UniProtKB/TrEMBL annotation:
Keywords assigned: Disulfide bond
Organism: Dinothrombium tinctorium
InterPro entries: Sushi/SCR/CCP_sf (IPR035976), Sushi_SCR_CCP_dom (IPR000436)
Superkingdom per UniProt: Eukaryota
Domain Sushi stretches: 118-178
Protein name: Sushi domain-containing protein
Length: 203
């Protein structure tokens, strides 16, 4: 498996009064329960208990009072994608420094490890084969720009779309990539390991 690592560091000096942290890893998946049930490409719909909450709360490494009565804060963490596979493509690091009893807030919102990529369960076609380019996401799935090409065994001819591109987390017919947006069709898209319109190898 491809493993990705991200390190996050920040340092702030001269804070006053003493700041309070609000940091954590967060599940970004949103939407109604009905929408989540309908989304078959969702990798983490079973993790509903995490929706709207931190996956893990994180504290500052150091909050130190300085001689001038201001505060110095620091934070460093190293994260590995392999530890958060159930949240692939939907995880972010958020950390805000807040001053209690005020509206002051500063911080970061960073998407962790990139998008989830496209499904890798490629349906087979009788008397045919496929080739998939090797580009991978941090979650070990085909990433945007990956190409999938179908072919047929000897004496067979392919009927239907032969080439697909991973774009925005979905396999889309490569022939549609050059069409105006309003002309694009998802009829040949691959979803959840099956075709919406399956190519056929025929004699």
């Amino acid at each position: 498996m491809i493993d990705c690592e991200e390190s996050i560091t920040f340092f702030c000096r001269g804070m006053f009064p003493k700041p309070s942290p609000a940091c954590g890893l967060y599940n970004d998946l949103t939407g109604t329960k009905k929408q989540r049930r309908a989304d078959k490409s969702c990798f983490i719909c079973a993790q509903l208990k995490h929706l709207g909450t931190y996956i893990k709360a994180l504290s500052f490494d150091r909050v130190e009072k300085r001689p001038d009565d201001t505060y110095e804060v620091s934070f460093f963490r190293r994260f590995f994608a392999r530890d958060y596979l159930e949240f692939r493509g939907h995880m972010s690091f958020r950390c805000y420094i807040i001053i209690v009893s005020t509206t002051w807030r500063r911080g970061v919102h960073h998407k962790m490890f990139g998008d989830a990529g496209c499904v890798e369960k490629i349906p087979e076609i009788p008397n045919g084969y496929y080739n998939l380019t090797p580009e991978r996401t941090c979650w070990n799935t085909p990433r945007d720009g990956s190409r999938l090409a179908f072919g047929c065994n000897e004496n067979y001819e392919l009927v239907g779309e032969s080439s697909f591109v991973c774009a925005d987390g979905s396999w889309k017919p490569e022939s549609n990539q050059t069409l105006p947006h309003w002309m694009e069709s998802s009829d040949s898209a691959i979803s959840d390991g099956s075709f919406k319109r399956q190519p056929v190898c025929s004699k």
